Amino acid sequence: MTDPVRCEVLVVGAGPAGSACAQVLAAAGVDVLLVDQHDFPRDKVCGDGLIPDSLAALRRLGVAEEVAALAMPVRHVRLVGPRGGQVDVPGQLAVLPRLQLDDVLLRAALRSGARLQTRWRFEGPELEGVGTEPMGAKILGAKILGEQLRGAQARVVGARFKDLDQPAHSRSVQARWVVLATGAVPAALTAAGLCERHTPSGVALRAYVQAESLRDRIQQLHIVWHPRLQGGYGWIFPLPGGLFNIGAGLTGSHRRNKDGKGQMQPANLHRMLEAFAEIYPLAGELMKNGSLQGEIKGAPLRCSLQGARLSRPGLLATGEALGSTYAFSGEGIGKALETGMLAAQVLCAAFAAAGTTATPAMTDAAVQADYAARVSALQPMFDLYERASWVNQHPWMADLVIWRARRSPSILRRLSGVLEETQNPGRLFTLRGIRKLMFE
């Protein structure tokens, strides 16, 4: 192992949460090293939709204008029910491939002063007083090691990485704090001892299709519910240049069995995408007449701030690693950015309070408590969207909401408020909400 790299904060993962965290820290004068296993720009499986919370976070980061210059502006979300009824919900929205969005966010972090190291893959934390090979890391798999690390009291003081350009070499980074922003795949969470659920909350599949002939006909974000989508939903999002993001998502894809282990429900995402093309004419036309760009790719989702511990001494998890995606819609970019900024704000406050002479251990409990309080403040909204995800398993609810919204301006405004996070989605997309709708 080569001599360790040193920094004040190590951020692992340069997606939206990691880059946002690194930018805020670096702008405050903190020495930040941002590490990712990929070179950038790099692709990321996502619906690519930017709803109001995402746009608000981008404004806070000072990159909204740069994103707007690249993105497709959209003014409505078209909700489509199983019977074919539809309603256009107004909102300030945009669509931009993650290939471009994540690169914009990363460059903003670098402009603020963060350092970057790519092609290093996270293997596990460095622990205070334990050394570089905690608990027999050479012989333990990541899952076993993670189980042993869970609840351990040893403080995280850095991380180990595999150098993907020199696989025989391990790299070490020493830091006062580590922020884990590694996304929905549980390997890094497990190795860090934070993973409480190895299976995802949901899964999604997306394709990029070029179809100039549909450019003028698909100018909204289309979200479609239907029984043949097996408890999920389909989407079509327009991108600049006649390109479209089409996909299918399934929330609640994994449920605990009698042994408490997560097990995927019987579903085939590729078949769901085929069914989407069969039941929704625009999706069928897009897949039949358009030109597929690249591969159809899938990815896991971690939703509702569930499935992982928020922190341990010396380490915070953020973004989709801690479940920052909404179960109702599968949207996660906005809350990934927000939780990344929360982690940075907590650490900035800790550095400001402690100064340069305090030992890190003096501030651990306060940092963890502060971060837990800030993330917990988001939990009620996630709970509301979790309850509203009932519509994915009971698509007939979408028919009723759409039918009422077409006849009631106030209900249409509520739907717009759900996009803006000013309205409780449970007032629309739950059994109780449906009962109220029928008598308004």
CATH topology of the largest domain: FAD/NAD(P)-binding domain
CATH architecture label of the largest domain: 3-Layer(bba) Sandwich
Tell me the structural class. Answer: alpha/beta
Identify the CATH class of the largest domain.
Alpha Beta
Number of strands: 18
The averaged pLDDT comes out at 89
Which stretches of 5+ consecutive residues score pLDDT under 50?
132-144
Shape: globular
Fraction of residues in H or I helices:
25-40%
Number of helices: 15
Q: Going by CATH, what is the homologous superfamily of the largest domain?
A: FAD/NAD(P)-binding domain
Which key terms come to mind for this protein?
single chain, 440 residues, alpha/beta, FAD/NAD(P)-binding domain, D-Amino Acid Oxidase, Chain A, domain 2, 15 helices, 27% strand
Give an account of the 3D structure.
- With 440 residues, this protein is an alpha/beta fold.
- It has 3 domains: 5-47 and 103-199 and 305-383, FAD/NAD(P)-binding domain, CATH 3.50.50; 49-96 and 200-301, D-Amino Acid Oxidase, Chain A, domain 2, CATH 3.30.9; 395-439, no CATH class.
- 35% of the residues lie in helices and 27% in strands.
- It contains 15 helices and 18 strands.
- Strands 1, 2, 6, 7, 8, 9, 17 and 18 form an 8-stranded mixed sheet that branches. An 8-stranded mixed sheet has the order 3-5-4-11-12-13-10-16.
- Helix 1 (16-27) runs parallel beside helix 4 and helix 1 (16-27) runs parallel beside helix 9.
- The longest helix is centred in the C-terminal third of the chain and has 22 residues, at 333-354.
- Residues 132-144 have low confidence and may be disordered.
